[in-house]
Amino acid sequence: MTPAALLALTQLEAPAENRAPDIVVPAVHSLALMTVMRATASYLWPDPFSKPQYFAAHYEEAFTMPPKFDRSQPFMQWDGDNLLINVVGHGLFGSELYLRARQCRFGVVGSFAFAAATSALWEYGFEANGVRPSAQDLVFTPLAGIALGEARYFVHRATKDVRHVEWVRWVVDPFGEIERAAGTGC
Hints:
There is one protein chain. The chain has 186 residues and is an all-alpha fold. It has one domain (21-181). The chain is 67% helix and 0% strand. It has helices at residues 3-11, 24-44, 46-49, 55-64, 83-103, 107-126, 135-158, 166-172, 174-181.
């Protein structure tokens, strides 16, 4: 299939695209994802994420101090986290948030806003009882989300009606394919 044919496929509007955005699927998906991420963080890094006696103090710090950003740290490690977590982890997280909203008809701007808002919920809600929110994560997560997520969305749409490449959609959007197989519709 030529690039022009793939582009033409992505520009076709299916009747389902005319429906209003569905907030339920991306919201439930994101809350489940963040719950699993938080449980994993507690297991991998029990200090500070599994110390309830410090939760209140950490939340107070999160809401009374600016987000962490230390320019003396190495590139993309301005919050003290390692490069793998900051670039790969937050990049994939943003991409997943963006793609789920995009698949549920939010459009580019709406999906970016959803990824940014959900990233803020992660930083200030799920993660703030262990560490102060990170300015880098608040900015990078939705930006990586729009870049990677839109690429994933393009590939998924380009292969939507192409026979014998269903596996590509499963590679590009595994959680979404599982959810659609369960009947979510987006």
